Amino acid sequence: MKLIKAIVRPNKVDDVREALGRVSLPGMTVTEVRGHGKQKGHTAIYRGKEYDVSLLPKMQIEVVVPDNLVDDAVAAIIQAARTGEIGDGRVFVIPVEQSYRIRTGERSEM
Amino acid sequence: MPTSPSSVDAARAELCALGARGEGGRAALRRFSDCVDDLLRRLFAEAPATTNPSLIVALGGYGRRQLCLHSDIDVLLLFDGPIGATEEGRVRSILHPLWDLRFSVGHQIRQIDDFAELEIDNPEFLLALLDARAVAGDATLLERIVAQVRTPAAHARILNALTSLIDERHARFNDTFYQLEPDVKDAPGALRDLWAARTIAALTDPALLDRGPADRTRLDDAEEFLLRLRSILHVQHKRNKNDLNHEIQEPVATVMGYDGAPRQQVERLMGDYFRHARAVSRTLRWVRQAAPVPVAVNLVQSRDGIRFVNIADADAHPESWLSLFQAAIDMGAPVADDTLTWIQQRVDRWPPEAFFPGAAERDGLLAFLRPRAGLYARLSEMHDCGLLGRMFPEFQAIFCRVVRDFYHKYTVDEHTLLTIRNLERLTTRAVKSRERFSTLIADLAHPELLVLSLLFHDVGKWRDDDHAEESVRMAMAVMQRLQFPEDSIALVDFLIRHHVRMSLIAFRRDTEDPEIVRQLADLVGTEERLKMLCLLTLVDVEAVNPETLTPWREELLWRLYVDTYNHLTLEYADERIEHLEAGLHAVIAGRPADVTEAEITRFAEGLPRRYLQLFPHDAIYRHVRLSRDIRPDDVHANLERKASWWELTVVTLDKQYLFSNICGALSSFGMDITRGHAMTNPNGLVLDVVQFTDQERFLELNATGHETFLDVLGSIIAGAIDVTERLRLREQSVLYRRRGGVTTMPPAIHADNHSSRRYTILDIVANNALGLLHRVSRVISRHGCDVDLVLISTEGQKAIDVFHITKAGAKLTEPAIAELTADLHPMLEA
């Protein structure tokens, strides 16, 4: 069981959701985030004055998947979120030890 | 008709007899006043005729029909024209018989032109006018004068004057009505106080007398008692004397019918007097404390809000109802609850057209819709009492409309009003993260049209399908009904039609893609529309539910705005109007008979493409006409008054210091340049359109101001007048020193050699000051640079000017930019 955390362009969330749906992963958590990686942002000019735009708006998608679907899920995310330009984002895969369903308290094996 | 001397004597004898019996109250005084009316009518009819219409006006107590036995007859003899020998003869024929009949006459003889300026320094006369009554002659003369008194300003002056007169009079009596020898006319609690209380109520809120410590019947009783006393006193004193002194109290008590020994009679008389005086005194105090303040025509501000004074007048004029809410915003107060209820009960009697019968009411609506504190609250009041929906049935279509989706938390009507509240908050709340959006509002030429667009942006949601198209259809019905000008209609159409477009792009598209930004820039076309669409998007998203507009989304929207703004302003000049492109074709197709296709093509081809979006077709045809037969030394210019500003259009062939000279000419007349465009076509034809405010009202106050300005402009451009010298003199003038030019922010210059293919772009932000554009462009010209395009805008006291320049037909080199900015900086900081 793995937690897949993907940082993607805001306009790619719908595409990623559809792609994950196609590999039978309908559930996800989406968070608005700001940050930068290699694409360090830039200084923009507005009316003759510079202002800092180094922290770029991104979307963070989190989805927990069974080990056997991790590769499909990662591939689906990358395929859906990719433009080929700097700033497409990152995908992290993190081990998950246990998972519980809050409503029933039962342990979920996925 | 008792108009002969003997009849007057008989009337006088009758009043004397009634007074002596203690029966000289209201009815008796009215009969005597009517007798004098008849006498004056006869004298008026018998007096020598004049060509000027004339009128006898009764004033003061006589005007109120409470003429006492020995009171002055206060009259105003009014003529509609100069008073010459004939008129004087007519006056004599009226006044002499009155004097012969032993009347004491307080007369004024005036011609109506005397009242062109109301006599604000004569408050007693203004007060007398409130009781004025036409007795004989052309009554319309009085109506013309009274109309001038029926203004909030005049009412305020009258109330102030009345208050002062009351205070002075009370001071003479040591501010107490417990006088052992009272003056039944002037003492506190006596007749003058009673009339003052009625006057204050009549001018502010007639219902005040119903809510006060004494009801109307109680006041009427007091008046009757005091008038009876006064009539007895006139009989006893045999003259106009109103003192109820010790000597006279016993006979007066007897006449008034009090029983008992003389001392008991007097005590009963004075007991009743003080009871009445207390009622009058308390009423006057209540009225003075509770009286609403006049704030607009037929409107006052009371403790619970704004209300009409004359309900019957308001009832007959629904077109005045919006002014109630306008005054409420102006005064920072609500509309009184009972007034809202009153509107609610009557609003359905009127069709929508009744509220906006003409251009004045439409312009009143626009003034009302200017985003500022209180607009949402007042619109909500209008909505709650049914007025908004009655004025605009299109808005009523979304009354309590429920659209069920995952996001919206409010009914459609409330969502709509919340968008306006959010816009209003941008103008009133100092929220750091929103400052950048707030500055956009300050920059808008017509923020009220943005509010109008917001009001109707979702009315199409009364149906379940695509609402934007339906909203446009319904909004256009409103705008055509109110006969808005074409450019306003086009702007509102655009904003409503595309009101979800920018949020869609900001939140659902890759805004880092230059093509996406270019498409949005093409859609909006101008910075003004971009700013309006951005603000509309912001407040619309925020009104969906409290969590929708996250800082993250704000940031996305702002970046899209900045990228699009930069695309519009920095790459503006790169895209030029090409031969017979679609936009130009439409201009040609719709041209009037006097403009040829060749003229349009010659003029417009090669101008920046956005020229076609910036100006409506009518303006383009005017520009084409101005460009006709232009020779190198010609300057074809036009000056036109807009709403609160002026617009100067200049067409000429390019020459050195041209733009600098135009700006200098305007500044040398004290004009404040607020926005504008200067552009050049490949044939060297220059079009400058500059909007400015005439703060010293030179053009308004001088009959030949237009011609003078255009003459000076032409001479400056031709080099016959030294504009620098004119500006130097202007800077030394008292007017300029009073306006001041204090620098409040450090200037910023940004030179951009990358955004445009053809031009170096100078982005200059500096404190707005007299002659700023002139000085900046002069420095640029001095460096051998050609100014091909200028975008001028202001944001409060900040001037934001974007120059697209070249040197010898190419972009500037980096050293040349460094030299230029090095010269500009000290000039801007000076």
At a glance:
The complex is a heterodimer of chains A (110) and B (830). Helix content of chain A is 20%, strand content 37%.
Top keywords for this entry?
heterodimer, A: 110 residues, alpha+beta, Alpha-Beta Plaits, 4-stranded antiparallel beta sheet, two-stranded antiparallel sheet, 6 strands, 20% helix, elongated, B: 830 residues, Beta Polymerase, domain 2, Four Helix Bundle (Hemerythrin (Met), subunit A), 4 domains, 8-stranded antiparallel beta sheet, 4-stranded mixed beta sheet, 39 helices, 15 strands
Any chance you could write out the topology, listing elements then pairs?
The complex is a heterodimer of chains A (110) and B (830).
Chain A: E1 2-8, H1 13-22, E2 29-35, E3 42-46, E4 49-53, E5 56-65, H2 70-81, E6 89-95
Antiparallel strand pairs in A: 1-5, 1-6, 2-5, 3-4
Helix pairs in contact in A: 1-2
Chain B: H1 5-20, H2 26-46, E1 54-58, H3 60-63, E2 73-79, H4 85-100, E3 105-111, H5 123-130, E4 133-137, H6 140-149, H7 152-172, H8 191-204, H9 208-211, H10 216-237, H11 246-255, H12 262-290, E5 293-296, E6 299-302, E7 305-308, H13 311-316, H14 321-331, H15 337-346, H16 359-368, H17 375-384, H18 387-391, H19 393-396, H20 412-428, H21 435-442, H22 447-456, H23 467-481, H24 486-497, H25 501-508, H26 514-524, H27 527-542, H28 551-570, H29 582-589, H30 597-604, H31 611-614, H32 617-626, E8 635-641, E9 646-653, H33 658-668, E10 671-680, E11 685-694, H34 698-701, H35 705-718, H36 723-732, H37 734-739, E12 748-752, E13 760-767, H38 772-782, E14 785-795, E15 798-807, H39 814-829
Parallel strand pairs in B: 2-3
Antiparallel strand pairs in B: 1-2, 1-4, 5-6, 6-7, 8-9, 9-11, 10-11, 10-14, 12-13, 13-15, 14-15
Helix pairs in contact in B: 1-2, 1-10, 2-4, 5-7, 7-8, 8-12, 10-12, 11-12, 14-16, 14-17, 17-20, 20-22, 20-27, 22-24, 23-24, 25-28, 26-28, 27-28, 30-32, 33-35, 33-36, 33-38, 38-39
